[in-house]
Amino acid sequence: MQAKMSKQRAKELTELSKKMAYVLRHGASKEGLRMDKAGYIDLHDILAHKMFKGVNRSDIADVVKSDKKGRYEVLHEDNKEYIRAVQGHSVEGLHHDQIMKQIFNAEDLQGKTIVHGSYMQYWHIIRSTGLKAMSRNHMHFAVGYKGDDNVKSGMRNDCDLFIEMDVELALKQGLPVYISSNNVVLTPGVNKTLSPIFFRAVYQKTKAGMELIYCNAHLDKIKYDHCYK
Questions:
Q1: How many CB atoms lie within 10 A of CB 84?
Q2: pTM (two decimals)
Q3: 10 Å Cβ neighbour count for 119?
Q4: Cα angle vertex 147, ends 155, 69, to 5°?
Q5: Phi, psi of 76 (to 5 degrees)
Q6: CA distance 201 to 132
Q7: I need a labelling partner for 88 at 20 to 30 A (CA). Which of 28, 45, 136, 184 fits?
Q8: Nearest to 198 by CA among 179, 222, 216
């Protein structure tokens, strides 16, 4: 039976994971680390970097193994090891289809609900201007709601606003849609924005349960014009 990790060790791995996430998602170039188009960085280069002083290969392996969200992948090639984040990048110039699987048919998602978690305090902005990727390359959606067995990442625990994406309409409109190896659905939308026309349904979490506050069902004519004319 595997020994339970000490609180101190768990804290150390959490701090190391934050550094890894920063470098592998956002800061490689700034830190002088070479990242290839598939998002990989040579593990030797990471361990040699000043940010990771005192860190060894085993520490990195422990982070990858213990990360419940499955945020990292290790590649063994030509007697070298490379590591990458599987989603969440803000780095420009990556080949996203080499990092994630591109979805071309909504049926590939097997009828799963694709939902983005947010907060009611931002709904008045979101319903007017759409979801924004902000500094990242994509907007992130969970494959289901928090608590579903297949949801590892893509939604915070304290969200009280839930936006379901109309994947079929998004694909018909030519929006790229991807799914990462840790089961997060991503899209750059149009100019890093996902218009409310692609919100299949929006729910507010209340004490009484989930309340529907918006859906695009009444936009059928617009959807027809956009998709078929």
A1: 23
A2: 0.88
A3: 13
A4: 50
A5: -105, 120
A6: 17
A7: 45
A8: 216
Chain segment 18-64, per-residue pLDDT in tens: 999 999 999 999 999 999 999 999 999 999 999 999 999 999 999 99
Task: Please report the sign of the dihedral spanned by the C-alpha atoms of residue 106, residue 175, residue 115, residue 15.
Answer: positive
pLDDT score, position 146: 75
Provide the residue type at 12 as one letter: E
Distances (CA, A) of 110 to 28, 116, 131, 137, 194: 36, 18, 24, 25, 22
Identity at 210, one-letter amino acid code: M
Sequence-distant (6+) residues with CB within 8 A of 40 are 75, 82, 83, 84
Residue 194's closest CA among 158, 216, 227, 165?
165
Give the max Cα distance, the chain.
62
Give how far Cα 169 sits from Cα of 25, 38, 144, 157, 180, Å: 29, 28, 18, 28, 20
